[in-house]
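Quick one: structure for this chain?
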Amino acid sequence: MVAIIKTGHSIRSIFNYNENKVSLGNAQCIGEGNYPMDLDQMSSVFKLNFLQKQLELNENVTRNSVHISLNFDPSETGLPKEKLNEIAKSYMTKIGFGSQPYLVYQHHDAGHPHIHIVSIKVKADGKRIDTQNIGKNQSETARKEIEKSFGLVRAEAGQKKKDTELLPISMGKIQYGQIQSKKAIANVLGAVLSSYSYASLPELNAVLRQYNVYADRGSENSRIFKTNGLVYRILDAQGKPVGVPIKASDFYFKPTLKFLYAKFRANRIKSPTHAKRIKNLIDLALLNNKPTLGELTKTLEKQGINIVLRTNDQGIFYGITYVDHTTKCVFNGSALGKEYSAKAIQERCGTVKSYPPELLWEKKQDIPISSNAIAKLIDELLQIEYVGNYLPNQLKKRRKKRKRKGQSDNQ
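Got it. Here's what it folds into:
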């Protein structure tokens, strides 16, 4: 069994993510803990309100929500709901959440059986539950004990990430026409928006395009761009939009531009450790070696990192973005340092005559710059800097000292 714990700022987002899976037929709410009534007697509104009311007891807790996934070996597909609920209860007790209200969801949209547990960090008395290092300490101990007591397949060292985080992202790519577009895009957005750390639209699109999805603001002269609108589109194998675009406001969880801007601000500060991981893996791949960009890409993919290239209208490669599916962080090359920028990576790699379609990002259109803005920028750059009455010290005349009243020149 592999346990993954994530904390968040919004219990509503976590709850809606799981309930959306239920509405799409990809999940089922199979249990609850510490609720005042049985599961079949509760509406969705009541489930969420009960959690929110307890959170109101301590509004100073910002990361107040907990989203846990317990992942089982692919061979354990026959685990009954009763046993899954017992495992969930045992796990929550062992990590210090035994008295907290929680909901258990069984998901059916992955290659291995797993459940999700939704809970909160505020106790009934208003105190906060400390989750610092909970994954490394309490969770790891609980996992081993539960594997033994319930007779589960043990998670092998080094196998955790392979089974849960490093599954080839291409397995989740949308194939246009095979499934309803809105449903397919909603599944991708539900998995990406709350899980990955992205600080701009280009960074978000670097993740989304791994699933053949693209968040589009339109051209600068379009109505949707001028009204701060946003649509989501499906991409084909060459990265070109296909089908009808779907407005962000048409999705029930409203992944609009306003929503994304709030996420960008929250994700602005990223862990230096996550950046260092990517840099170390790139340096290791290039150590005493000069692979092609394609070879570097394949090497990093084995470590769960995708490279996304950006080109201009002339097809010239001008930018690079790294998507780490292990840490769920996205970094532009320049943010990691000069050695990891688009130009530097080209120089450190061998000659690349062409780039495969899956590497190339859309043309430079995520943040269109108007001709007026360019003209204004050029104007500012060409303006003579105002220096006032500045003179070098050597050319300044010495100021005469003013005499005070009653003071003679002989003093």
